Amino acid sequence: MLIRFKKSYEKIAMGLLSFMPTEKELKKLRCTIKEYETNENWQLYLWREDDDMLGIIGTVKQEDGVVQIQHICVTPSHRHAGIGSKMVQELRAMMPGVTVCGNEYTTSFCQKCGDTVQNM
Ligand SMILES: CC(C)(COP(=O)(O)OP(=O)(O)OC[C@H]1O[C@@H](n2cnc3c(N)ncnc32)[C@H](O)[C@@H]1OP(=O)(O)O)[C@@H](O)C(=O)NCCC(=O)NCCS
């Protein structure tokens, strides 16, 4: 299930975010996590199964009614088991009436997860 990020998950969240091609540098990663902690337009969720955090998905509000998935990562040992798709689907279900789009890194995967996910 998707759970909302909180400060106590910071280390695990940074570890998961570091799988994004855009988050390979520690300095950039620190800025990114800070933005999720302080900017209300940035929202971060973790995928929890039992007590394990296996994935992460982060969005930025583009305008009213539009959010963009800017980060999505699954821990390597649990890929190809549907977690990435489930995160996108659950996110969309949490946001009825909102258009969920991808960015240049996430669009191709998001498109696999459903017709209403589009590039912007
Ligand atoms: C992308 C990612 C989140 C998918 O997570 P996952 O739990 O393995 O996803 P699912 O099991 O739901 O789906 C796997 C399918 O997505 C495909 N896929 C993986 N990355 C993809 C991408 N960037 N674009 C399109 N399809 C992609 C896989 O090839 C696989 O396809 P198949 O079922 O036909 O074999 C995971 O591969 C990951 O963490 N990658 C590193 C982080 C990253 O680069 N994120 C940005 C790209 S979205």
TrEMBL record:
Keyword field: Acyltransferase, Transferase
InterPro entries, per the entry: Acyl_CoA_acyltransferase, GNAT_dom
GO molecular function terms attached to this record: acyltransferase activity, transferring groups other than amino-acyl groups
Limits of the N-acetyltransferase domain: 3-120
PROSITE patterns on file: GNAT (PS51186)
CDD domains linked: NAT_SF (cd04301)
Tagged with keyword Transferase: yes
Ligase found in the keyword field: no
Gene3D superfamilies from the UniProt entry: 3.40.630.30
Protein name: GNAT family N-acetyltransferase
Taxonomic source organism: Ectobacillus ponti
